[in-house]
Amino acid sequence: MKTHRKSSVGIMRKYYQLILIIVCCVSIVTLLMYRHEYYKLRYVLEVLNFFGKPGLSEIEFCGPGFNATMLSELLRNSSMEIKETPSLFQEIDENFHSYSSFLHSYEKYEHLKQTSAHVIDTIVVGKAYSTPNFRCYIWLENDSKPKSGRFSYKIMSEPINNYRLYVFQCVTNKNFGKPIGVSFYINDYNVNPLHAPINRLIRINTKRLVRKHSNIRFVNTVVPAICVIPNDIPIVSRDAFIEFLVYHHIAGVNSFTIYDSMISEDVIRRLNLFPADLTEWNIQFYPLNYPFIFSKSYGIIKSAVELDCMFRHFKFDKEEINKVTHIAVMSWDEFLVPRVHNTIQALLRDDDPMLTVHTSMVKPLLFCLNQNDDDNIDLAYPDIMKKTHYYDVPQEKTPIAIRNLETMTTFDDIFNLTANVKNIPVDVLGVHKYIVCRDAKKFNSEGYNETEMQVFQHKFEGAMMKFGERLVSNKIYRLYRSGQIWEKPNNEVVRDML
The pTM is what? Predict the structure, then answer.
């Protein structure tokens, strides 16, 4: 009997241990689930604390501030980040500066055969009357010795203030491995190529899928993007920065690539706080280290940025959803304003239903910031709404080119920018350029006064006004104007927040 009793006690003890183990496992799982839900709830409460509850006034909407936990979470979920290799000017020699380099092929890299050639295109700005005479090396992953390539070049522009845009091409006939960089150096065997600067490669797939029914276009096939460069004077105010982004967003542009080194880290950091579901836009920042006198080389730098912008956006296959179909390069003081349509997509679909026009040119209209405000405009509206006359001031006006990537079925089509060009009438679409109009011959001119302004021909244009209510009621713009992104001056007129 004792033996049986001891055996029963031992079995019960094992059951108790098993039950304790099960309870312990359930407790741990429950604790982990509780911890996960707790952090989710805390994140939601912190975001509400910063952005507020729906329906509150703007001051209540924003809350008192944010802490480090919320900042890290928001930055992690930010829609604005550098996801790709930034482009930087590097000196090849005293006459040529390379910008960005792109590795492309007509197959996915993993499917390349040993006999497939690597083709690398590099955007270069150089002196207009200097002939490129270089050799090139291709640097491979996990290999300290580069491979020699075959050098050639294309001229991409007419001379602009003694500068010209080139594309340097470096090709190898065999697949030696994964290329990661390219360097150019003077065609002199006494020069050590290892001393040449190396451009990091941006990989792209240049075989674009053709639609099975090319004559059918759906309403979502037009996806415009804007690449932004600095103004002629490369300084942008916070007002102009926010107004540019918010206006073009409500006009239908959700993709922005910003090439500007004068945007402060504070601006980028604060805008990074906004999650993607609040802004509904995608922004990337790239530095722009122009190595020349900016005012003299502005046109050629803009051409280089445009080519870089097309190279980057071209890499997407046509069948992918919401990939960019049209790009335009603009500065912070330029606004694409449709006359009849409410969005740029609707305008481009109506103007070119089959999406066959390679380039659409848009005429610039000069709106002087030193003209009188229109008395019929709400005082709380920004200056771009209050200036309603464009002037015929003796100043260079450069049209804006809208490039249609849908017409470019191969990578080489990018190099032909003069084919199939169409001018969009000004009564359909205009580029409003907002600057202080002044006498360019007078140094430190503060701008024309009211009497001097009347000398120039001018015409009323109120197309921008129809976007006024949508702009000032935009959530991001309201946050900015209420001082919750940056502090506002006390004497600034602020629209009442609903």
Answer: 0.76
